[in-house]
DNA-binding transcriptional regulator, MerR family
Amino acid sequence: MRIGEIAHQAGVSTRALRYYEEQGLLTSERTPSGQRTYPESAVERVRLIQQFFTAGLPSRTILQLLPCVDTGHASPKAFELLASERNRITAAMADLAAARDALDRMIDIANHPTPEHCPALREPAWAPYNPADATRTAPGPTEALVASATLITM
Amino acid sequence: MRIGEIAHQAGVSTRALRYYEEQGLLTSERTPSGQRTYPESAVERVRLIQQFFTAGLPSRTILQLLPCVDTGHASPKAFELLASERNRITAAMADLAAARDALDRMIDIANHPTPEHCPALREPAWAPYNPADATRTAPGPTEALVASATLITM
DNA sequence: CTTGACCCTGACGTCAATGTGAGGTTTTAG
DNA sequence: CTAAAACCTCACATTGACGTCAGGGTCAAG
């Protein structure tokens, strides 16, 4: 398969694929005329790479991780890296959850049944970590709103 | 309080605070000589701003959101924005979870009790979405490893 | 053989939240 | 009073994963 096909199937640009190759994340055969050729499996590999990029891993880190995907074995160094990146991701998820909760508090206040009731600041929307709000975990308030917004934005 | 104190308490640089002001996210009084002065509450406000930045919201979006923190009311536009950003964050968390699971699969394989058993690719580590692995949700494998890595990296 | 779609290699542009340094004023501690 | 520490305003540098344009080959179809 040529680069355009891979790009299409993996949902990325050809520029991205050449960049991955430049970074050592992806290899390709070449036709006599110099055009890149990939095996089918490249599609999944690109998707994995993209997943890591999306998760905020820099290319240098991905480069260190990929060999252990290929060999199925992890050196001690790679092992540490795997673990520390996992921790990083976990921390990032916590940060996102915190921001989401802040938004939820704002939505709650904006949705307050009696708008006259909260002139501004009885409990500021950004109060530091109100544990009473932390009992609920996943869905959050105003499901209908979020659902409709999903329709709008996804 | 002056800028250095706020920066210290909020855990950001003075440069960041001046940038926030430049972007309209933060206001300050000035002493006759021109030095910035902030109320105590600025610390929490900066922390909120940082939380949003960490969650990937761009300053322009934060700028649209903050008024509704201040007034406790959200215009329809702001409301849509709140909802769509909440969705964005939720999607980002899902992406992080997917990457974390990919790492977990790699860790599992690297930790495989019989390393000789998986020469490379019986089930590639990056197999697309193995639902059997999705039953477990939060903690993941190799707790001890992750715990020790936490000690190392946090 | 030619046209249009695809591919190639540079190489510069982008965007956003800061970092950093220059050159100068203000505040604070002694 | 003096020196250090903190502040001020420009304004250019950084980082990373691409976008985009230039200038030029390649490949299938008609």
User: Anything to note?
Assistant: The mean pLDDT of chain A is 82. The beta strands of chain A are 29-30, 36-37.
